[in-house]
Amino acid sequence: MAAQPPGMTDRLLGAMATSAARRYGLERVSELAHALQCAELARGAGADDELILACLLHDVGRFAVDQALIFDRVGGAGGHRHHGARGHHEVGADLIAPYVSERVTWLVRIHADAKRYLCSTAPGYHATLSPASQHTMTLQGGLMSPDEVARHAAHPWFGAALRLRRWDDQAKVIGKETAPLAAWEPLLRARFR
Ligand SMILES: [Fe+2]
Asked: Kind and range of the H or E element at 41?
């Protein structure tokens, strides 16, 4: 049985609370508001706890780690890719991997690819994305080949990944009322081990 480093859930909650002061990329909502809106959309749609948790944490790589490690952000180093920098989805997934289920980690890791998939397969989807999200899609690899599309579509968890992605895209409403971060604390404490 792996011992849990003390206070990881508290550190995560602290990072999320602090992210209320951080703008979500070029969007006009904060990182925290975005996470809360995304999780609430998932719960409202009847998603299971793992999927809700993935929605809450999907962008943790955007605010809980050193952003010099992240290349797929707007207004970063002017397109210069810091040596060793990786996507926020990869860094975020690695951060939470020791503490959550494999499916939650996978859903966080795949959320940029889910956007690439939808851009490649869903007519009109690309046009619905914000300019910032369109820009990072290019940084994250652009459109998928037919092979890549088929490989992703065959994954048993990919349906959940697409649901997360749609809520992610919708979770940018300025001034939308949501439950506070504290409302998710029981779920975090129950699922974060
Ligand atoms: Fe997001």
From this structure: helix 31-44
Helix, strand or coil, per DSSP, at residue 120:
helix
**Contact criterion met (CB below 8 Å) for 91 and 69:** yes
Q: Find the mean pLDDT for residues 122-128.
A: 94
CA–CA dist 53, 48 (Å, integer): 9
Task: Please tell me the distance between residue 2's alpha carbon and the centre of ligand 1 in angstroms.
Answer: 30
Distance from C-alpha of 98 to C-alpha of 16, rounded to nearest angstrom: 18
Q: Which of helix, strand or coil describes residue 70?
A: strand
Ligand 1 center to residue 139 CA distance, Å? 15
Task: Kindly report the backbone phi and psi dihedral angles of residue 30, in degrees, each rounded to the nearest multiple of 5, phi listed first.
Answer: -80, 165
Q: Which pLDDT tens digit goes with each residue over 158-177?
A: 999 999 999 999 999 999 99
Nearest to 167 by CA among 33, 30, 41: 41
* Cα-to-centroid distance, 147 and ligand 1 (Å): 26
Question: Taking the complete model, does pTM exceed 0.85, yes or no?
Answer: yes
Q: Is the pLDDT of residue 108 over 80?
A: yes
In degrees, rounded to 5, the angle at the alpha carbon of residue 174 between the alpha carbons of residues 160 and 14 is: 70
Strand partners of residue 70: 86
pLDDT for res 22: 84
